[in-house]
Amino acid sequence: MSERGGLRRKIWVAFIMQAAAISFAAVLGVYGASAVLKHVLIQRALQEEAAHFWGRREDDPRALVPDTYNMNGYLVRPGEKTALPEPLQALGPGFHSLPRAQGGSLVLVEDREGQRLYLLFKQEQVDSLAFWFGMVPLALVLALVYILAWTTYRASKRAVSPVIWLANQVRQWDPQHPDASALNPENLPGDVEGETLTLASSLHEFASRIGSFVEREHNFTRDASHELRTPLTVIRVAGDMMAEDHSLSPVARRSLTRIQAAGHDMEALIEAFLILAREGDTGLPDEDFPVEEIVREEMEKVRPLLGGKAVELRLEREARLELHAPSRVFSVLFGNLLRNACNYTEQGLITVTIRHNSVVIRDTGVGMSADELARVFEPFFRAGNRQKEGQGIGLSIVRRLSERYGWPVQLESEPGQGTTATISFPSVT
After folding, report:
1. Less Cβ crowding at N or C end of the chain, within 10 Å?
2. Is residue 165 part of a domain?
């Protein structure tokens, strides 16, 4: 689990975003409250104070205008400016807000009974109210939000720490040799409990079973490689010895040829199965080898398949091609395609062409229709004459090996015109 995309980082980012969103909402709320305080509550207070003053004036014409700690006022006749401060002289009836350079007060101007009343709510008091009823609660709310967010983050971090530890343990596993000892219930940290404990126990059991499977697979491929090759070697050597006997009847020699061909097919098939049985590791070393040598060896192996057929097997080399890979893998892949061409060609020509980054096998056999070509890589599917010898899995093996090693195989075919198989090697430039 990378640090950039780790669970701990995601939780941290989530809490940061949550705290930022709450802070933005709180600031917006305080700003709105300040606007309400300034433009609604104070205006309402000025209106009520003005109404109260005019009521007092009706009862006592000598009543004085308000002059308190928060508010002061002026009462003049319209057009009379001598008793007014200069910032108020140009103001008409209604609410006004003076710039800070002129005191910054909120002003209410009303005309009644031939007189004009000016009421001023001092800016210092507005700022004081905004601070105590806005900024102070905001600071307290934000401090509480940050404390709660940090506390919740620490609690969440402790809650997910076992999961992160478990993910790190699994990430360090080698797929071929998973070491589950750290997930043994006796070795688990003390904070691993609940669902995490259940998951760790399940993974421990799963990894132990995987280890057993891998060990059995290695043992099988090792034993099979020896035990299956031994009888095939005996059959091949006995067949070669019998082939030297010139007293064999034509019927016996045809049977011997079939035995030798079947032995070669079975040997290649076992080799392919042993390679495919190892997931990601064929057990074969990479090496630099000339493709032409493998091609010539496989061509010699398939010649018995052409016994009695009017088929010419030809090799053309247009360029020197070398690969860095297990040579046996290429041998199995190429050999399956070549045997397929031999089995389905009764007369004509089978040409193997080596190019600078590909190997092409072209035959003049029975060919395939478009429907058959679409299914040719399916296991046990056999195109054309199904009476031909074979297991129907050769091209399926070819597809799996080509995908594993990145060697694309392309087939082109027409009924009665033959088939062309091309093995490409993109890594060769």
Report:
1. C
2. no
Q: Distance between CA atoms of 374 and 353, rounded to whole angstroms?
A: 24
Q: What is the pLDDT of residues 225-270, one digit of tens each?
A: 667 777 878 888 888 888 888 888 888 888 887 787 777 777 777 7
Q: Answer yes or no: do 289 and 277 share one domain.
A: no
Pair 221, 303 in one domain: no
The domain of 265 spans 173-283
**Tens digit of each residue's pLDDT (9 = 90 or more) over 338-352:** 988 998 899 999 999
Closest Cα to residue 305, out of 340, 334, 281, 357? Answer: 340
Instruction: Tell me how far apart the alpha carbons of residues 239 and 258 are, in angstroms, rounded to a whole number.
Output: 10
In a domain, 155, yes or no: no
Whether 273 and 300 map to the same domain: the answer is no
Contact 417, 367 (CB under 8 A): yes
Point out the domain boundary residue: 234, 256, 283: 283
pLDDT value of residue 1? 41
Give residues with Cβ within 8 angstroms of 344, minimum separation 6.
363, 365, 366, 383, 384, 385, 388, 419
Query: Residue 161: inside a domain, yes or no?
Result: no
Question: Checking DSSP bridges between strand 115-121 and strand 71-76, what pairing results, if any?
Answer: antiparallel
> To the nearest 10°, the Cα dihedral for 341, 344, 347, 353?
-10
DSSP per position, 139-181? HHHHHHHHHHHHHHHHHHHHHHHHHHHHHHHHHT-BTTB---G
Residue 30 has pLDDT above 70, yes or no: no
Q: What is the DSSP code (8-state) at residue 225?
A: H
| 429/318 same-domain check | yes
Task: Please count the structural domains in the chain.
Answer: 3
Tell me the C-alpha to C-alpha distance, in Å, between residue 148 and each of 13, 18, 134, 160, 406: 15, 11, 21, 18, 55
Q: In this structure, what token pair is assigned to residue 381? A: 């599917």
Assigned domain for 160 exists: no
Instruction: Provide the pLDDT confidence category of residue 278 given band limits of 50, 70 and 90.
Output: low
Same domain, 324 and 269: no
Check residues 304 and 33 and name the one with the higher pLDDT: 304
383 and 347 co-located in one domain: yes
Indicate which CATH number applies to the domain containing 292: 3.30.565.10
Q: What is the mean pLDDT of residues 357-366?
A: 94
The larger pLDDT score, comparing residue 83 to residue 331, is at: 331
Beta carbons of 332 and 270 less than 8 angstroms apart: no
The verdict on 294 and 256 lying in the same domain is no
Report pLDDT digits (tens) over 101-156.
776 788 899 988 788 888 988 766 666 666 666 667 777 877 887 788 788 877 77
131 and 183, same structural domain?
no
